[in-house]
Structures are given as C-alpha cells and as structure tokens.
Amino acid sequence: MSVRKFPEGFKFGVATAAYQIEGAWNEDDKTKNIWDTTCRTPGAILDNTTGDDVCKSYDFYKRDIQMVKFLGVDFYRFSINWTRLFPNGFINKTSESGLKYYNNLINELIESKIEPVITIYHWDLPQSLQDLGGWANPLIVDWFGDYARALYKMFGDRVKTWITINEPKQIGVFGYGMLYLAPRLNAHGIGEYLAAKNVVLAHARAWHIYNDEFRKIQNGICGIVLACEFVEGATDSPEDIEAGLDAMDFSVGLYSHPIFSSQGGFPESVKRRVAARSAEQGYPRSRLPEFTPEEIEYCKGTSDFYGFNHYSTSFVTRENFKTGRFPVPSFDDDLGAVEIVKDYDRGALDYSFIIPEGIRKCLNWVKKTCGNPKIMIMENGFNTFGGIKDLDRISYYQRYIDAVLDAIEIDGCNVVAYTAWSLMDNFEWNYGISIKFGLFEVDYEDENRKRTARWSVLWYKHLIETRALQHHYLPEFREICF
Ligand code: NOJ
Known about the structure:
Blueprint: E1 3-5, E2 11-15, H1 18-21, H2 34-38, H3 57-71, E3 75-79, H4 82-85, H5 96-111, E4 115-121, H6 127-130, H7 140-155, E5 161-166, H8 168-174, H9 191-218, E6 221-227, E7 230-233, H10 238-260, H11 268-280, H12 293-299, E8 306-309, E9 313-317, H13 331-335, E10 338-340, H14 356-369, E11 375-379, H15 391-409, E12 415-421, E13 440-442, E14 451-453, H16 455-466, E15 468-470
Parallel strand pairs: 2-3, 2-12, 3-4, 4-5, 5-6, 6-8, 7-9, 8-11, 11-12
Antiparallel strand pairs: 1-15, 9-10, 13-14
1-deoxynojirimycin is lined by residues 17, 20, 166-167, 309, 379, 421, 428, 437.
GO molecular function: beta-glucosidase activity
Pfam families: Glyco_hydro_1
Protein name: Beta-glucosidase
C-alpha cells in the first residue's frame, strides 16, 4: 500500500452551517430568517421538510463537539445564525440566549482543543433585512460590517479564523437570479449581479474592519469562501475551451477577481459579455454594475486566504447555444453556453459527478488566476441517500484527497487545510433532509436525533491520526453512537 504524507503543519477540519443543523428556529427571541420563510413556501423544498428542528444542535451541541473530538480534527467550521444573536437584524439588540449559546460552543471547543472557525454568513439573512432588499441593497455593506464587527468583539478573543461570507455565487445566482435558494427572487439577469457587487463589497468591509480594528490585538485571519466547482470545455475545440474559461469567470472569477487579482474589479470576459447582451436587449447600461475606481482599490487584497469549496466538475459547449434557451436576460444567457452531461458516476444529487482530477484542475485555476494564494479547502464531500457502510463516500474522499496531494506536490498549489463536509447529515437546503452529506448519520425519527458514525468517520479519523493518505485503507468497522 502506498502512503502519501501531508505537508508539515497541514490542518484538517470538519464543517457545518447554522441553519442546516441548529433547529430551534423560533426559540427564545430568535426571529425569522430567509430560510425560515422559504421553508414555509409551498413547493420550495423538494421533500417538504424544514430546518425547524433538524439536528437539534442548539440543544445537543455538546454531542456535536464529542463527535468532532472523536474525529480528531484540528478545527471545527460552523456558522453564526444572524437572527439568533441579533433578532432585529441590526446590532442594536443582542439576544442573551444566543450569545450564551455561541459562547458555550466556542468555549467547549477550545476546552476540547479544537480550533473554532466561524463563518459569519452562511445564507441565513434576517428576514427583516431581506424585506429591505437584502443583498440587492447597497446599504447591506454597512449592515454586514456592523454585524461582523460585533462578532469580532464578542468572540475574537478566542476565534482566530474568520470566514466572512460563504459561496457568493449561490447567494446571488441561485437566490436572486433563480427560483431556487432563498430568497428565491428570480430577478434573473439583474439580481444576481447586484448581489455579486454588494457581497464582494460587504466582504471587503468586514475584512477592513478586522484588519484595522482587531488584527493587532486578536492576531487572527479573515477571508472569503468561494464555491469552486470546476467547469471545463466539453471538447478540445477552441470554442469549447473558451466557453469553459468564460464559465469559470462567470461562476468563480466574478467574486475572486475583485479580491485576489492585481487588476481588481469584475473579470473582463464577464464585463464584455454582459455589456454586449444588455445593449442588444435595449438596456441603457450594462446590467452588471461597475465598481468605482475607489471600490476596486478597496476590495483588492482583502482576503488572508482563498477559501475553496469543491464538489464536482461540469462541461460546457457553445455549439447548441441559442439565446432563448435560458430566461432572457439571465446569468446563463449572458454566459451563452450549455452543459453537456458526460458519463461519470455520480452521487445522489444529479449534478454531483465524481471527477477527482477536477479538484486538481480547479486548484490550479486558482493558482494561476489569483497569484498562487494560500488556499484553505473549506468544504469537500459526497452525498448519498443514506447507509452506514458508506464505501462510496470513502472512495470519493480517497480519490479527491489524492488529487489534492497531486496539486500540492506536483503543481505547487499552496493548499494548507482540508475540511470535510459535513460533520453529520443535515438540511441540504432545497433538497431537504433526503440527501445525506454526513460523516455521521442522524436519526430524524429519534427525538434525541441519535448520531451514528458511518464507516467514513473511521476512515477520516485514521487519515488525520496518521497525517497521511494510505491507498486502499479500510478501517475495521465498529458501531459508535452519540
Ligand atoms: C456548499 C454549501 O456551503 C453547504 O451549505 C452545502 O450543504 C454544500 N455545498 C453541499 O451542497
């Protein structure tokens, strides 16, 4: 069996997000967020479930920590539920019970020698702020900055790694440009670009606040996490290769270019394509808002690491593209490419193809377009319909982590951390609870939400203990419950 060691100092983690695990949606003084609203919208969630009392981590967080401890990871990535802490959305009122909950969680992690890594925003915007326009309203840059500052003040003495915002594309394209993720605005061709600009500016504001007011005393790091699904041309034709590169600019570059490139602002290809389509469609100006020169400078260099989430790869072509195939105007129409489905194995979600070389290619795309930044893989994982002996998940992790090691050792990508998604089964957004990403299984029929270790728990535990990837390693299975 061959064994590949991880570089010295490489860190391992496991992740969750508040709405996906906490439950207790209306306990104490918590108010509604956009997911509480979406889950009450008929037809929005495929299996008609909600996050209302999903894994009950608000009650059972101590067990979650025992599970994290059992895995032996260096850090636990979780997010703050905005309205649990600030019921008004604004920071003028703090919930004492919310504050107590997050303090307990953080303190208990530290006592267990696990580093807390906080995501400030993982998609659960206060409904009160959504009613004022949410990420389409430029004032959110102030609101988010205030919220971030409040968190640094409350927890920054103990929390040293901050993620400002998780996956801007999912917020904007799927939340504002489609009828898909909350808030399901479906303002296609407009909303996703307004959100893109405001999310990037809000991130930059939160980073500057950390940098100017807290870094010296708290000594932490602060960065953004982007959805880095890889998109490649379906064939080697120059047109398809260009379609793949454009798709990366639209999906990832829209957010990474303003922050990580030396030029700043939105990528040229996106600016050009959206401006041209907008003009054809009779709009007086491009639907993609511009950054002012001051804003371009303000956003550049505002991430201490590149947070990288990756699950799968897709393929695009321009061959059969005709405008009208997608809503007009829209993100997809502006990109002007169609997806070609190739014959790869997949997980339970129909878009999650198992293509390990995709993660390596995507890490190299980041290296090339963003000046070889320090990359922290903040999510990677596999989805099934369930089962404890999850050999398919182990095989996915095995092959993807192998490809990450290729990216590090052969290509010189500066990857310093790896995070498995997810600690346990949870509320997979518009798919509800039927899709399982967990290392631990959660029994939703049990009022105590018993958690049982899948085979992959033992596999990941061994990887972390040995700090090495051992090909074809399979742990001996034993039943472990929390
Ligand atoms: C990325 C998101 O950050 C997370 O919330 C989600 O559950 C996973 N992808 C899996 O789809």
